[in-house]
Amino acid sequence: MAMLEVNDIHTYYGNIHALQGVSLEVEEGEIVTLIGANGAGKTTTLRTISKLLTPRQGNILFEGEDIAQYAPHEMVFKGVAMVPEGRGVFARLTVAENLDMGAFSRDDTKGIKQDLERVFTLFPRLKERRSQVAGTLSGGEQQMLATGRALMAHPRLMLMDEPSMGLAPILVEDTFKTIKAINEEGTTILLVEQNATMAFSVADRGYVLQTGEIVLDDTAENLKANEMVQKAYLGIE
Amino acid sequence: MFNKSIDIRDVIINGLLAGLISLSLSVIGLIALLSEREIISGLFTTGHIFLVGAPFAMAYVTAGKVLSEEKSKALGYGLLIGVVASVFIVVLTTLATFFDIRRFLVNVTPVLIEFLTFGKSLLIGNILIVVMMGVIGLVGAGLRILPEQFKHPLTSGLGWTIILGMFSEILASRIRAFFGRGVHKLIFTGKAFNVVSATILLVLIVGFTYWNDLRKKDQPEKEEVNDQTDGTKKRLQRIKMGVFGVLLLIAPLLLGTYLTEVTNNVGLYILMGLGLNIVVGFAGLLDLGYVGFFAVGAYVMGVLTSEGALGLGFTFWTALPVAVLASTLAGVILGIPVLGMRGDYLAIVTMGFGEIIRILALSDLLKPYIGGAQGVLQIPKPELFGLTLLHPRHIYYIILVGVLIAVYVSWRLRDSRLGRQWMALREDEDVAEAMGINLVSTKLLAFGIGAFFGGLSGAIFASKLSSIFPHSFNLVVSINVLSLIIVGGLGSLPGVIVGALILVGLPELLREFAEHRMLMYGILLIVMMLSKPEGFIPSKVLQRELHAHEEPEPVSSD
Q: Is there a smaller number of Cβ atoms within 10 Å at the N or the C end of chain B?
């Protein structure tokens, strides 16, 4: 049984049919990437999985359980954490307060402390800046903070929405190294990306989303070699 | 506002601006009204303060833009500002003497012109006003360039003397009540200070501030030497709290009936402010219909206890929990339809809710139950142990208890788990949800608890006034409460109290302001938002946000 099973979901924004039957699977311990152009429905898929949107049709199973019964905030308690697009940090709160908010769903003081250590080990920068207001961090640091905050919920599945967006190339590389490291420590990751080259470099498998439908799914290796993918997403003629 | 160094053109523009402000205050009639309020008997009045306030402030600010070594330049600029500003007044008095300008400017009365020319002839009066404003500009600039150890004592001395002088009428009546006619005669001539007592007061305050500054300067060194000061400090803190508590308890005795009544009005607004502060300050939900909950509390109290035809025979104490519960419920009910709304949309819908409540109260439909436009009459005062709490000082204690509860609850909630949920909600709704925060319960609790205190305030209001009418519950009340929170500092508890004292207490004491109240509100809000947007006593987060750019820039890696 896969950790996450998305079965033929159709999500709408009013009358706009944004997801037209998306199915995908994420096995425990994997990094799975979802690539596609602007407006293909990548973020919509993530928001549907984290229950911020409700599909009109189809179902989503997390560890075998249909998530339809849960409210959005309960998904965090189930072990699904999201790193929102555009880094979504609490701009007026300090780094420490942001991280503290990430552990909102938990009350095991000891575990929270351990995870805080883990976040500070992954991102020493955050430790230096822990009393700085998040809004004054640089773009790369804000991405670290958003990722660290999601880790504070101690998720089993982490949904990441375009972590490379708006970052300088050198930072993009660092970001993906961290993603790999987090995964190696045992967190399953579903990664939405436009930067297909980088995404394939860390992912085990990938899905290609086009105008609300999955058009391709394969291992990252095979996708990288796929002619259509090369043309459309990797910029190779 | 202006960071570049200042040249003569800017100075003249500043002078013109200051003059324009003085002129406006004159022609709207405020100066003439305030000229009745003496500060030092026979010498100068609150009218003078408002007349020269703008040139004084402008000279003070302008002098600060001049390099610190160019002292004579700063003084010259101050003088220039005063003289330029006075031109407006000269033109006004001259025009008023030769033409009938009262036809367009109804407030340019002979009384005003007499005041502006110091009761002298036009020529002499005009010379006097130019000289006076020039001197004021000079003083403003001079004060600014003084070294810090003199500047602070002098400004606070002048400030406090003027403020106490403005309220000398009340002060005088209190002093007569406690110390008798003899002492009163010694300090006051009529309703105002005499020259001697004002000078003594000024010297005392300047002296005390100077001494206090010196003491503070010494203190940090002491702390390093001696660790025991921490314990002493705590004890001192406790003594201060104790004194403050006793003062709160005996306040009605010190204040007398009139001031207690004013305090009660302020107290009701503090109660509403604390409630709305939970909704707007903590949870960031902009609610413009807050008066609706105040109205629900008042009407439930009124209808349940009224001794008139509408009444249901409850006592104040049995009706109070019902009234408060009803408004809490109203808060939750309002919360449900607006769960999905944000920002501007939320503000508009809640504003509509407030109006709906008022229109329902006014409607013929509900007239048989809540009296329509005639309102609810004959609401009894509360009774306690067979004693009817008739006097304002009795009501004072009820309001005091309410405010203390509201302060305690707000303070505890702010640092609680729920408080953190509100904080996350205020900062970013989407991220808060992704963080595992239940938006539905978080929002409804904010609306409900906020409405609880609004309803409590309304219930006490109904009993205090003995009758309630729909027109007491219009939009202006919501705006007032929101303004006092913003002026005090959004999300800050002491801020609510300071805001209520300034926006509700002051206009009550300066009755001349009554017809200019909204104008003064507007001016105060604009000035506040430009100069101190975080409010008088800002909360931690707001302070950080609005002054983030003043912190050293972070070293950026990208």
A: N
